[in-house]
Amino acid sequence: MRHINWFVIAVLFGSFAFASSYPVLSGLKSSGSFLGGPVAPSPSAAPTFRALTIQDIPGGVTSKATNHTANNADDTIVFTADATLTLPAAAGVTGKKYHVVASGSGTDITIDPNASETVCGSTTIQVNGTSDAIVIQSDGSNWMGLESSCERTTRLKITNSGTPTITSQQGNWVTSLSDGGTGVTTINIPAGIFSAAPTCSVTITNSGGGVGRYCNFQSVTATSIVEYCFNSGASDENNDVLCKGPR
């Protein structure tokens, strides 16, 4: 009779019993992997994605048409009329962010920090016009602007066929134009738009040409810009003005 190796049989039986008690190990052979276990089924369809919308922002959107004091529940605050937004003490809400939007046409929003605190280094700043916006965050002492929010970029189109007029503008950053004679126009800017003189550029938009066409700035301050745009010194020029400066 062939000799039976009872030791081998005992080892095999013990291994089977151990594996049966631990399903993960029992799957080693059938799964073909070291860890074993069940394999996740393949998805029946490819996942779909959509663009992030403002409603996806944590904290949601608050719409205001009057003065408002920001609180911890606020995140994005959309103003549809002139108003003042009062900020809480920065020390009590370190890291808190507010996204402030001026939505209504001609809307002027004043952002006023608590006590002697500042926002973008100023005691107050403004958000003006349609779709102007700013993102600010508390650093524990004051409010800083994120994503270049402390800078304002503005545009103005001027038509000048003897008397300068505003064709269009981005935001409410210009109140009026003053005619200073042939080629000379003063752009009047209300207080609060820029906290210091902006950096500006100007482009002639008249059709046609001429060697004598010229346009530059005689002076630039936070509240006025004097430009000199002429054609051979005898006529005015239509032009676009682009300015960028601190709120």
Low-confidence runs (pLDDT<50, min 5 residues)? 7-13, 15-39, 52-57
The proportion of residues in beta strands is: 35-45%
- Separation of termini? 102 Å
User: How many domain units?
Assistant: 3
Count all strands and give the number.
Answer: 18
Order of secondary-structure elements: HHHEEEEEEEEEEEEEEEEEE
Structural class: mainly beta
CATH class of the largest domain: Mainly Beta
What can you tell me about this protein's structure?
This protein folds into 3 domains: 38 residues, no CATH class; 96 residues, Sandwich (Jelly Rolls), CATH 2.60.120; 95 residues, Sandwich (Immunoglobulin-like). 10% of the residues lie in helices and 39% in strands. A 5-stranded mixed sheet has the order 1-3-5-8-9, with no helix packed on it. Strands 12, 13, 15, 16 and 17 form a 5-stranded antiparallel sheet that branches. The protein is elongated. About 15% of the residues have low confidence.
